[in-house]
């Protein structure tokens, strides 16, 4: 048995104060008047700052085409009954979902998706063009529909898809983005309201209209950049999956030879 070491004596009462004094030599002068808060950047700097902020929460979004129909169907079939009801406004059966996915006109509409690392489609948005604005034939409108798998919610994916849909529609010369949602669908209505949409409730159903600004060179560059980065991200994930599959294959073959070698020796 060893005797415990004697406890060190407590520090003198002024020990902390002493260090404060030493450190004060390097810190701000306590007697000096407070520094004014820095002005938020304006002009091109404000744009650069906004772009950097967006980049820090960037999510790769990919434009989908006909060849993605199988993934789109898989994604929609994975929605729980309650989510199917919120997404389509009725309890869509598997058959109705397949029919809907097969009817998407990729030449006219925009379909946007977010893939996870395993290339599973976790979020999907459909921007349907060619919607008439009742009583205002000179105006152009697109309808937005979205779904995010339950396990990927509340991470801002729905909002990002909404923003991307607005950007695409705007660059196509559309002036209004329309969302039809059940009034109980608080996340969807929250996304629309936060973007500045006018929300009108009519009992159990709600309609939201978001007026889009005119397209600019900057909005077109932003869309092109998003498209290229989204494509790059997808290809990168695909390569990673191929390499991972190859490594798994090698490990399997090695394990097979190891076990047959052991069996031969025995
Ligand atoms: C609507 C939906 C797409 C939202 O996707 P999401 O990725 O979870 O959305 P976000 O993470 O961008 O968050 C949406 C907002 O709703 C808020 N929210 C989430 N759950 C909420 C709830 N139960 N009540 C109120 N607000 C809620 C979030 O806090 C967030 O607001 P904030 O950014 O101000 O904090 C998703 O819930 C979904 O797929 N639902 C089923 C299909 C559907 O309803 N589609 C819409 C009809 S077209």
Give the tags.
266 residues, alpha+beta, globular, disordered N terminus, binds coenzyme A
Topology (elements, then pairings):
Blueprint: H1 15-24, H2 44-56, E1 62-63, H3 69-77, H4 81-88, H5 94-103, E2 110-115, E3 121-131, E4 141-148, H6 157-171, E5 176-182, H7 186-194, E6 198-202, E7 205-211, H8 217-265
Parallel strand pairs: 4-5
Antiparallel strand pairs: 1-2, 2-3, 3-4, 5-7, 6-7
The structure holds coenzyme A.
The site of coenzyme A has 22 residues, from helix 4, strand 4, helix 6 and helix 7.
Task: Explain the overall architecture.
The protein is α+β, with helices and mostly antiparallel strands. The protein has a domain of 174 residues: Aminopeptidase. It contains eight helices and seven strands; from the N terminus they run ααβαααβββαβαββα. Strands 1-2-3-4-5-7-6 form a seven-stranded mixed β-sheet, with helices on both faces. A hairpin with a 2-residue loop joins strand 6 and strand 7. Helix 3 runs antiparallel to helix 5 and helix 6 crosses helix 8. It is globular. The two termini are 52 Å apart. The structure holds coenzyme A (COA). Coenzyme A binds next to helix 4, strand 4, helix 6 and helix 7.
């Amino acid at each position: 048995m060893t005797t415990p070491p004697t406890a060190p004596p407590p520090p003198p009462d002024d020990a902390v104060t002493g260090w404060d004094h030493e450190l004060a030599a390097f810190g701000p002068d306590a007697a000096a008047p407070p520094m004014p808060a820095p002005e938020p950047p304006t002009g091109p700097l404000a744009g650069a700052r906004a772009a950097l902020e967006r980049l820090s929460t960037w999510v790769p979004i990919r434009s989908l085409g006909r060849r993605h129909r199988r993934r789109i169907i898989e994604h929609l079939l994975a929605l729980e009954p309650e989510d199917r009801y919120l997404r389509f406004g009725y309890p869509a059966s598997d058959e109705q979902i397949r029919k809907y996915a097969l009817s998407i006109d990729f030449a006219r509409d925009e379909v946007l998706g977010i893939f996870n690392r395993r290339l599973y489609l976790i979020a999907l948005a459909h921007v349907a063009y060619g919607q008439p604005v009742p009583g205002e034939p000179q105006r152009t409108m697109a309808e937005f529909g979205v779904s995010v798998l339950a396990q990927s919610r509340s991470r801002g994916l729905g909002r990002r898809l909404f923003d991307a849909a607005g950007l695409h529609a705007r660059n196509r010369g559309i002036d209004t983005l329309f969302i039809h949602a059940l009034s109980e669908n608080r996340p969807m209505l929250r996304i629309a309201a936060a973007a500045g949409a006018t929300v009108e409730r009519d009992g159990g159903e709600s309609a939201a209209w978001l007026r889009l600004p005119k397209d600019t060179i900057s909005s077109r560059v932003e869309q092109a950049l998003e498209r290229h980065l989204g494509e790059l991200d997808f290809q990168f994930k695909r390569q990673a999956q191929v390499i991972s599959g190859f490594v798994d294959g090698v490990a399997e073959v090695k394990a097979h030879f190891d076990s047959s070698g052991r069996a031969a020796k025995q």
